[in-house]
Amino acid sequence: MTIGQVKEGAGAILSCAQKFLPYINDTCTTYQINTPARQLCFLAQVGHESGGLYYTEELASGAAYEGRVGLGNTHPGDGVKFKGRGLIQITGRTNYQALSTVWKVDLIDNPTMLGGKNAEVCNDTQLKYASLSAGWFWNANKLNLLADKIDLKSPIDEGTNLDTFKLITRRINGGYNGLPDRLHRFKVGVQYFVDIPPV
Prior knowledge:
The chain has about 200 residues and is an all-alpha fold. The protein is about 50% helix and about 0% strand. It has nine helices and no strands. The longest helix is centred in the N-terminal third of the chain and has 17 residues, at about 15-30.
């Protein structure tokens, strides 16, 4: 993807788009986010989740996740230690362990490798894994298959396109939180993706 596609699709400021561009491109290659519809849906969603590729760590302390067995938070302090990080806010010991296994890195002892506060203070490793973790989540939830149903030449906020985009949102968010903002990012970015041949 180009800098323009990443910037406009995610609704990011130029500096954040520039920092993430190589890592988002690597992520898209790794997880076959390789058609215009897949890429734009991915960017619009992670753009919302990260405040325009800015936040790579949840603003809340994570204390609310303490003792949440469903997230694998079975040790004292797990809530704060494994709070949401990455461009799609990976949360909980179970998910951090899954990523550790996939990438053969130790995120249990080094959870901030997934992201540190925001893009301005992240090092290259944090930018890399913040992006890759979003791709992993996207892939694990089979969101490419849904994105394939999106017709970029039809309005995103009508009919089948809207129904499909809402399904993507629900798999990421558990509901439809921020749907208007996600749709807005898509609408702004679509002109950068129409008539672009698949990779």
